[in-house]
Amino acid sequence: MNRFTWQRAVIKVGSALIAPDGDQCSARYILDLARFITASRRAGKDVILVSSGSVAAGRSKVKVNHNASIAEKQAMAAIGQMQMMANWQRFFDFPCAQVLLTAEDLRDRTRYVNIKNTLREILNHKAIPIVNENDTVAVNELKVGDNDNLAAYTALVAQADTLIICSDIDGLYTADPRKDASATLIPTVEHIDETIYALAGGAGTAVGTGGMRTKIQAADKSTTSGIQTLIVNGKKADTFDSLLKGEVPGTLFKATQTPKKARRLWLSHTLKTCGTINVDEGAMRALVEKGASLLPSGITGVEGTFNQGDAIEIWCTGKVLAKGLSLYDSRDLALIKGKKSSQIADVLGYETAHVVVHRDDLVLLK
Known about the structure:
Layout lengths: L1 E2 L4 E6 L1 H4 L11 H13 L3 E6 L2 H5 L11 H20 L6 E6 L1 H5 L1 H16 L3 E6 L13 H11 L4 E6 L20 E2 L4 H5 L13 H12 L4 E6 L3 H8 L2 E2 L2 E3 L5 H12 L2 E7 L1 H10 L8 E5 L7 E6 L2 E7 L4 H7 L7 H5 L13 E3 L2
Parallel strand pairs: 2-3, 2-6, 3-5, 4-5, 6-8, 7-10, 11-13
Antiparallel strand pairs: 1-9, 8-10, 11-12, 13-14, 14-15
Helix pairs in contact: 2-10, 7-9
């Protein structure tokens, strides 16, 4: 059995586990997962949940026929989301935080940064983020479409090192084990290619929308960004006993590079620079020697026009020092440069963050 280590994981739980009967939330398969989450948090690890089940949970409250309209499905999602969150909260003695997203939220740079900051603060306050697609407002063109891929996007925005997808089978097999008795479990996938995709079948249950193919798509997105991905059987209690021991009781998709390297490459080479800020030598030393975030007090100048969430270069004494994502636009930065963090709200009338570039969104350049 493969072994793995992790510090921050996104755990995806599907409708078949949340609402196994298809019309209401249940504790049948969730209790063992909840115990795993609680034990992991006590060990100092971060956990983010991506939970399906709102539409299934709302089905018992909104009686519709099989040809439900979009508005009826959205009503089911709105009512069922409350049922789903209440179901999760009863397992924990720490707060649960609801985070509803659409594909548009993840595509928009400013919203993406805000989501990341929100998730970071939820974890800092010892709560557990519970993410779901915002089915109450999303239409088809605004939907991610399945929570496997939503979990992958969440792992990226949360800067997780691990994605755990809880399924109703043990992992990726050489064939569909429900149809082929000779199918064998594949314990490790080093690289995802068309051969791996060819092993995926269709949707697994009538309740959920994601089959093995969407799980492989999620693993593909994650592993190429330095996030190891596990597919495990969430219906088996001993699955979570194994995970607590650092064992993989399913399929491990290995990351093709470290998260830090993947993020460095993304920041350094993929994002287009939209502006420049100049900092004093004190700020330079804090960034280089202490690995600190950039504070407004160290900024001496702002050049170019850019928005919150855009990539900017950081210069000192005529040389480029670093690249990062700005938490303020150029107009507001020009107003708070040289100010203390405590003065931001007084100057702008609001405060997005007490730093200008967080250390997690900054890469030093040679």
